[in-house]
Amino acid sequence: MGTHDPFEYWLAQSSRAGLTRRGLFRLTGAGAAAAALAPLLNARAPQPGRRSSRSATASVEPPSTEVELDFWNPFTGPDGPFMEQLVGQFNDETDTVNVSVQTQAEYYTRVQAAAQADRLPQIAVMHYDQIPLHAENEIITPLDDLVELLGLTGDDFTEAIWTASAWKGTRYSIPLDIHTESFFWNKELFEQAGLDPEAPPTDMASFEAAATAITEEAGVPGFMIVTTGPGAAFLNGCVWASLFYQGGGEWVNEDISEVTFNGEAGVQATEYLVKLRDLGVTPENVESDTEIASFAAGQNGMVWSGLWQTSAYEEALGDSLGAGPLPQIFGPGTWAGSHTLAVTSTEMSEDERQGAYYFIDWMTRNAVTWAEAGQLPARESARETEEFAQLPLQSAIAQQIQDAQFFPSFPGAPDLLFAEGGASEAVLAVFAGQGDAQSALDGAAERYTQIVQEAKARYDF
C-alpha cells in the first residue's frame, strides 16, 4: 500500500457509477470447476517442526503449458518495490507462468475503465471493501472452486477478514494481507520522560500517563490527534474507528437497514478524543500528516498509524522505534484493511486461469517478503514462519491480528466512516466546535441510513 493509498481508494469510491453488467466470463459452477481442477492439486505434508495451516493441505499445480499473465496493483508508495520483488521471486521459481506486474495510480478508476474497454488484467488486487461493488459489476469472478480445492476456511486467516471479504455468500478473492491501525512510540522520548521504553502503555490509564509525561518532561506532544487537512477524514477516522471497535461499536443493524455508528460506542470514542485534547497532550489543531512527520522527526512521542508506516518509521528512528498492539482504551479492537487477490472477468484460457490460481495460492503462502513492506500476511501459515518471526516490529504488531475488525460487506460500506458527511467528518465537526458528539453523529447516521437503504434496494442485500 502506498503511503496515501487508503485515502485515494475511498476518494475514488465517491465517483463510482454502476457499470453495465458485462458477463464476459462466467464459471460453470463451483462443483464442475472443482472437478476439473482436482487433478491439479498436490498434497502437501506439514514441514518438520512447523505447524501447517490448520485446514489447507493442498496447493494448485502450475499449468503444463506456458502462460503470460498481467497483475495490477495500487502500490504507488515505497511498498511497490517489495511487491515487484515478490512477483520476481514467483517468476524465478515458476517455469510455466510468467506474471507482469503493473502498478496503477488512481487504481479503481483505471480498473473500471479497463472493464469498460475489455482490457482487464487476469489478476488484480482488491481491497476487501471493494469486493461487493466489483463483484456486482462482474469485474471479478467467484473463487469458490479454488477455496474448496485448497480447503481454505477462516481458520487459515482470521474469521473477521474471511467474513468481511465475501459477498452474498460467495468468495471472490483470497486475502493477501491484513493492515491494522498500530501503535508506535519513541523509546528515546520515553526515557526522557522517565518511562520504561520496553513497557509501552496497554490501557487507558497508562496511555494517558505516558502522553502526559512525554508532554511535560520531554517537551513534545505525547500524542497528536489530526483535526484538519485533506487527509483528516482518513487519519482521524482510523483512530476513531479503533476506539469505536474497542467499545463494541457496530456500523449497521443486523439486517443492514439502519446505520448505528451514533450509538454509545461512537459517542464514547468521540468524547475520548476530545478528552485527550483537553488533557493538553496534543496541539489544538493538527494538520493531516503532521503527526506522521513529527513522529518520524522525533517530535511526537506516540502515534497510532497504519501498519504501512512501519518501514518509514524504522528508517527514521532506528532502534528508538517501538511498535506493537494498540492500547486497549475500552477493550480489544483495531481498525484494519486488507488487500486481497482476485481473478477478473477478462476472457482467458483454462491454462491461464489455472496459472492465476497458482499465483494466488503461491503469493498468499509466501507473503513474508510483503511483510517487510509493513503488512501482516493474512494467511496464518505465512505468519508462523521463522522468516516472519525475524521481523520484530511486524511480529509485535501481529499480536493484535485477532482484534482486527472490518467494515460489513456491502457496496459503499467504507463511506460510513470516510466519505462526505460520514462519521469521521462528524467527529472533525465536534473538534471544530460545531455541536456535541451525539448530535453530530446523529446527523451523519440519519443521512447514511438513507444512503444504505438506497444501496440495499439497488444491490439486493
Query: How many distinct beta strands?
Result: 15
The best one-word shape is globular
What distance lies between the first and last C-alpha atoms, to the nearest angstrom? Answer: 29 Å
Major sheet details: 6 strands, mixed
CATH superfamily of the largest domain: Periplasmic binding protein-like II
Write the CATH fold name of the largest domain: D-Maltodextrin-Binding Protein, domain 2
SSE class: alpha+beta
Strand content is 5-15%
**Radius of gyration, in angstroms, nearest whole number:** 22 Å
Q: Which bin fits the share of residues in helices?
A: 40-55%
CATH C-level class of the largest domain: Alpha Beta
For this structure, the quaternary state is single chain
Average of the residue pLDDT scores: 90
Low-confidence stretches: 1-57
Explain briefly what this protein structure is:
The chain is of the alpha+beta class. Helix content is 43%, strand content 14%.
Structure description:
By secondary structure, the chain is of the alpha+beta class. It has two domains: 219 residues, D-Maltodextrin-Binding Protein, domain 2 (3-Layer(aba) Sandwich), CATH 3.40.190.10; 207 residues, Periplasmic binding protein-like II (D-Maltodextrin-Binding Protein, domain 2, 3-Layer(aba) Sandwich), CATH 3.40.190. The protein contains 21 helices and 15 strands. The strands form four sheets. Strands 9, 10, 11, 12, 14 and 15 form a six-stranded mixed sheet that branches. A hairpin with a 2-residue loop joins strand 6 and strand 7. Helix 10 packs across helix 11. The longest helix is centred in the C-terminal third of the chain and has 23 residues. It is globular and about 65 Å long. The N terminus is likely disordered.
